[in-house]
Amino acid sequence: MRLSTRGRYGTRLMVDLAQHYTNGPVPLAEIAKRQDLSAKYLEQLIILLKGTGLIRSTRGRRGGYMLARRPEEINLGEIIETLEGRLAIVDCVTEPELCDRSSECPTRGIWVGMTDMLKKQLFSLNLGDVVQKNVPLEDLLENADD
Question: N or C: which end of the chain has fewer CB within 10 A?
């Protein structure tokens, strides 16, 4: 699976909001500047993230965007699924009817297992973990064996 810019930039947006969670609403222009991303592109991502209730907005002079829940209550799996769609290495993992061979395919089990590992990792990490830098690569690799 390859994450698109939507998934990568959207995750950066959410981490930025988590880093500034206690400051109240954050103007989009500030996020764009800190992340060196286009405000126009971030607007598109915000629409998706607001639609699933991960962020909320406030209007006015001190308006902007903020997380809809505490950083510890939003996991990376939610973010990536919102921005990228269903998490699966290949389509037949979530929609076996798309492939005539899925019931007898010798490699489908591999793709299912890899998808399960990916989901387990992404849904076990929350924005609080990322902000606190509690996500060392060694831990992810060790947990992959569980």
Answer: C
The contacts of residue 78 (CB under 8 Å, 6+ apart) are: 52, 54, 123
Amino acid at 40: K
Token duo for residue 15: 């981490």
Q: What is the pTM for the complete model shown?
A: 0.85
Q: How many residues does the chain have?
A: 146
Which residues lie below 8 Å from residue 75, measured CB to CB, with a gap of 6+? 122, 123, 124, 125, 126, 127
Question: Which residues 6+ apart lie within 8 Å of 32 measured at CB?
Answer: 38, 39, 42
Residues 6 or more apart whose Cβ sits within 8 Å of residue 15:
127, 130, 131
